[in-house]
Write a structure and sequence with these properties.
Helix content: over 70%
Number of domains: 1
Largest sheet: none
Radius of gyration: 39 Å
Distance between the termini: 135 Å
Number of helices: 4
Strand content: under 5%
Number of strands: 0
Shape: rod-shaped
Structural class: mainly alpha
């Protein structure tokens, strides 16, 4: 009986520490659509623990219930007296709770990354719209300047024609 408890605790600790250190899954540094790195500080600032709490509570209840069912089948299959608190139900409950807690943390991190990406995308779209509006304004100014230039050129041409006519009249009158 004590061997089962020790075995369950050791295997649970090894399993949990393997997941915690990242041996089972190395997280890749995330990038946004533009290709910029999303830093850990940004992720930690944006991250909440909502899913970690929900997954831990739900996973703990679910895994404890499943391991309680499995332990009742094991104990009743043998000639042992069944107790609700036994190594199989406790170990399974702890393992399930720990595993689903980690899954909740992963989900919180993933959602924080998505929120950062969305925020950066909205900022980039806003900048693009501002630059487009600025470009349109510059196009309008260029068109106005072209019209002004054409008007000045026309006025210049008229003045030059008047000067030519005056010069001709002076030449004829001399």
């Amino acid at each position: 009986m004590k061997k089962n408890i020790i075995f369950m605790l050791i295997s649970g600790i090894l399993f949990y520490s393997g997941l915690q250190t990242g041996c089972a899954h190395r997280s890749v540094m995330p990038y946004d659509e533009k290709g910029d790195l999303i830093t850990k500080e940004e992720i930690n600032k944006e991250k909440n623990n909502k899913n970690a709490v929900i997954y831990t509570l739900g996973g703990g209840a679910l895994s404890f219930g499943a391991s309680l069912f499995i332990s009742s089948m094991v104990y009743r299959g043998g000639n042992k007296e069944f107790k609700v608190i036994n190594p199989i139900s406790v170990g399974g409950g702890l393992l399930g709770t720990g595993f689903l807690y980690l899954q909740g943390r992963k989900r919180d991190r993933m959602l924080a990354i998505e929120r950062i990406k969305d925020s950066r995308k909205l900022t980039a779209e806003k900048e693009v719209k501002e630059k487009q509006a600025e470009r349109e304004l510059l196009k309008k100014k260029v068109e106005e300047l072209k019209k002004e230039k054409a008007r000045v050129e026309e006025e210049k041409r008229k003045i030059e024609e008047k000067l030519k006519k005056k010069k001709k009249k002076k030449k004829v009158g001399d």
